[in-house]
Sequence to fold (293 residues):
Amino acid sequence: MDRNKRDTARPDRFHQRLQTRRHILSPRMRMVADYIDQNRASVLSKSAIDLAHEAGVSDATVIRTVQALGFNGLVDLKQMLANHLGQSSTTVSKVATTIEQLQQDMGSVVDHVLQEHLHAQQTLAQPETRLAMERAVAILAQARRIGIFGIAASGILATYAARLFLRHGTPSYALNLTGIGLAEQLLEMSPGDALIVLLARNTHREIQATMEEANRLGIPVILITSHQPHSLGPMCAQIIILPRAKAESIPLHGPTLSCLEMLMLGLTMAAPQRSVESMKRLVLLRKMIRPGK
Fold:
């Protein structure tokens, strides 16, 4: 559900302020503003220092951002967010809403998932998405290796995507840990790689560190997201926009999976001989391990 249509009785004043004042914000201030916009419920319980830590900026930048958006201070901002949110949408409420909508009927479950995936495939088939895919494949075709960044559920998809690309001849690796574990994974990145980033909307220290390292190494970034404009957009060589899931429902990850498989097949078509040779080698290795298979 579009943010501007979530509650017609309560206009989204924060979003309105952000849109009208976005042009006066510095890049780091936009990171703060986007983090607040995309994490409204959790912002209510955070201090300026907490927000600075989450957005990867100084607490002074947080305060300057709040003031630039026309608020007297963080308390004033939180009051507006609280008034608009009413009850925050949580994972629990999303599960409850989805269950209620499906009415404990397996037929409605099948219809719900099929409708979500049908909408996703229709979006992926649009000309602008096709063009973005083509440009992304061109970037991947020039890469020595491919890194795939994803956290939580996206981390599982990152692991799967790395396996797909590797099987078809392109050395690949997943960047899917959090905290200091990710720091060790980032050592894998090197010039000549390309990076695919799976990110819904939240910006956090892990993605900030990953983007900064990619920028330092001159690695082109392909962002796959359902939110546009995205605060990371200016740092990316290509953005692929996926359809948004309904805000009140359990998110499904079929669109991201479809997108990754399209990129893999596109890269295979760009370098078919490499894919064939890789699969031949894979078959030989399997026979070495299990001769009778």
